[in-house]
Amino acid sequence: MAIDLNGISVFLAVAEARSFRIAAENLGVTRPAVSQTIRRLEDRLGVALVQRTTRSVGLTEAGERLYQRVAPAISEVGMALDATADRDSAPSGLLRLAVSSIAEQFISGPLLARFADAFPAVQVDVTVTDEEFDIVAEGYDAGVRLGEVIDQDMIGVPVSGDQRQGAFAAPSYIERFGKPEHPSELSAHRCIGWRPAPHSAPYRWEFGQNGREFDVAVDPQITTNDMWLMIRTACAGGGITFGMEDTFKRYVASGQLVPLLQDYCPPFAGFFLYYPSRRNLAPKLRALVDHVKRWR
Questions:
Q1: Which of 135, 169, 209, 219 has the maximum number of C-beta atoms within 10 A of its C-beta?
Q2: Angle subtended at Cα 239 by Cα 243 and Cα 228, rounded to the nearest 5 degrees
Q3: Could you tell me the pTM of the whole model?
Q4: Beta 222-224 vs 191-194: how paired, if at all?
Q5: Which long-range contacts (CB under 8 A, 24 or more apart) does 173-178 make?
Q6: In CATH, what is the architecture of 165-264?
Q7: Which CATH superfamily hosts domain 93-162+270-295?
Q8: What pLDDT digit, counting tens, does each position of 70-123 carry?
Q9: What whole-number distance in Å separates Cα of residue 250 and Cα of residue 266?
């Protein structure tokens, strides 16, 4: 069977937009043309691919199977063509990144500022998020996460060295309530906790001793998904908080916060720029990968 590339392209546009109107706008054709192309493809395959109602457009089971198998292949073809066409041209276009809110060295400013200066034709769109999701399915070019949570089928480039987490409190808090000598004593202290989403449980504070890792389920008096609120509240004497050492360095250096329980905070693998394992990287992503390697 000859491949109907035009029909496949239109089908992918409809599958991703879940709308004939939006697909037509994205393709620069009329809505009837999109509908006719889908109908011809369905007739040729002998199976319905798209479910149409007056209010929505969805995929049939056969359509979903076709989309899951064809979309990655078409993406690879597109990247290969782009790489061939752009081999001798400067990197350009939109580079979408999903970056952890605690990847301090990546989001602190200088790394991205120098990249933007070196590659002015690349537009960088950074979503700072701690949600775990498939960056490919969500349309991102790459992400930045701790190495321990990156899928095995991804390529990872170190963005930082080893990291440590730690507990921190303001001198004013310590004067009033003292220091915990062991993580088990945290239950008797006012704690400022973090959660990734409104309906998520507060993050369990992770420690280690003599090569054994353990965590403590503190009962925070204040919980938030905003690291800067945690820091500001801790600096104001509101309690003990917990996070990546890099995030708190400037506040420790200024005397606003004091590190606690350091004997129970061992180092671990740091942050990585990660992206799908593909032979042909888009020039814009290749430029970022090389920039990160030089930066370290």
A1: 169
A2: 45
A3: 0.60
A4: parallel
A5: 173/234, 173/237, 173/238, 173/239, 173/240, 174/258, 176/237
A6: 3-Layer(aba) Sandwich (3.40)
A7: Periplasmic binding protein-like II (3.40.190.10)
A8: 888 777 776 666 656 555 568 889 999 999 888 888 888 899 999 999 999 999
A9: 20
